[in-house]
Amino acid sequence: MSDYKLEVVVVPVSDVDRAAAFYRRLGWRVDADITTDAGGRILQFTPPGSPASILIGTGLTPSAPGTARFLHLIVTDIEVARAELVSKGVQASAVFHDAAGGYNRFDLAARAEGPDPQRRSYASFVTFDDPDGNGWVLQEITSRFPGRIDPGVTSFSSVADLAEALRRAAAAHGEHEKLTGAADPAWADWYAAHMAAAQAGG
Asked: Which residues, in sequence order, are CB contacts of 100 under 8 Å at separation 6+?
């Protein structure tokens, strides 16, 4: 089967300059800023560590400004990520989780304040909007559900993601050495296997 890689999402905005200023303030990388022959403007932004980008611009989509909802951004520490947003002047929600113990971030009535009590992967959220009301969701994921990622292919989208994976592997390896009662000379192999398995949901 061919690969189908989602790389760009068009976000409908009413004022390109205002939207561009917002996404620049978030620290998203500007990949393109093009003036069209008709005098319009198209910009591509990529969030830090993301393999996918967004497009904003003049006449790109028939969708009304502000109608993009629940666009997900995945983070490894929901509280740190929220603090970063707030430091940049973004009106982010408080961290919340599904009061029923599931993963519902869509229903306002289902939300309970604070991160997931067990800090389960996929279960803690923050929301914020751009100036047009396009809605974003931060979702904390520290390990993937089984089958989500090919276990034979391991990659990290940023130095920060790799560092976090190394920290988790180090903690797990420490427990491993406690169980064996001896230093592990093959620790590098153990780290690599652990990091690949964790990323694939193992």
From this structure: 110
pLDDT at 100: 97
User: Pick from 104, 107, 126, 106: which is nearest to 115 by CA?
Assistant: 126
Number of other residues whose CB lies within 10 A of the CB of residue 189: 10
3-state helix, strand, coil in the chain (%, to 5): 30, 20, 50
Q: Which residues have a Cβ under 8 Å from the Cβ of 175 and sit 6 or more positions away? A: none
Res. 15: pLDDT tops 90 = yes
- Which residues lie below 8 Å from residue 172, measured CB to CB, with a gap of 6+? 194
The CA distance from 200 to 57, in Å, is 36
pLDDT at residue 157 tops 70: no
What is the predicted pLDDT for the residue at 44? 98
pTM comes to 0.74
108 in Cβ contact with 96 (< 8 Å): no
